[in-house]
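Question:
Write out your own:
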Amino acid sequence: MHILIVDDHPLNVDSYVALLSQIESNKNASFHLAYNCKQAYDLITQLDRNEINIDMAFIDLSLPAYEELNYRSGDEIGSLVQQKFPNCIIIIISMHSEPVRVNQIIKTLNPQGFISKNDINYKNFPAIMDAISKKDSYFSKTIMEAQKEFIIKNINWDEHDS
């Protein structure tokens, strides 16, 4: 299994690797790490060129941009992953929980997992991964509340607004 982790905080990246390594099915996983959009782009294109498939990707939304190629956030990196590796499981882990932003990510990426960093800890991480590994979608409490708020307020937000 090849797992991509993209987050601009090295401690978060190390924590995800440590937590994922504790799960039996990931014991022999290869981890591919990036800390900004440029590193992520370079890594993804290199893996694609070498015909190494990414099975699962953990992506933060707020990342330092790769201005030269116009990659400014994790959702754009997620789109690149989906383009190069259509069977990859995308999991967004972010502090962003604004209803409009959450809805935009769900509509454009349709991630299998969307987790607010406020909702995750070492105790519930294995259960989250278990749900995702069974091909269930997993949206954390904060993300579900943001989606509910978006629907209740009937926010009319389209591509033009974005």
Summary: The chain has a mean pLDDT of 90. Residues 47 and 53 are 7 Å apart (CA to CA). Helices lie at 10-21, 37-49, 74-84, 99-109, 125-133, 141-152. The longest helix spans residues 37-49.
